[in-house]
Hints:
Layout: H1 13-22, H2 26-31, H3 35-41, H4 45-56, E1 60-64, H5 70-76, E2 81-87, E3 94-100, E4 103-105, E5 113-114, E6 125-131
Antiparallel strand pairs: 1-6, 2-3, 2-6, 3-4, 4-5
Amino acid sequence: MGRHKLQKNGFDCGVAAVAIIADCSYGKVLRRCPVDKMLKRGLNLKEIGSLLNGLTGVPWVGRFSRLESLEWLHETMRCSVYLVLLKVPGEKFGHYVAVIDGAVYDPWDAKPVPMELYGKRHWKPWRVFVSLIPWF
Length: 136
């Protein structure tokens, strides 16, 4: 788990973030996506959950976040691996990132960075996906 993947266009951050969490190739995730829809809008929450469940072999659940920033969310999490949909400031869409052991794997950035150095740590988390298996 945790090999960094880059997104390939403006709508596929979810594909790359799932590939990071599931420790599989970008292509393997993409083959399971509704590509015709994804190229126009990105993955929705139900699709992200389904991909995480299917590719990791463990159940994942998406929850709303009421916290004001990714940094606050990270301070309250009781797990070391999760996927977050961040609200892009001033936009109607979000951006998926993976968090593993305190490092943020942003598919738009060249490499993962520690939470305290992540430039978007002040963005509001919309949803957070966590595994129901605590050791994942």
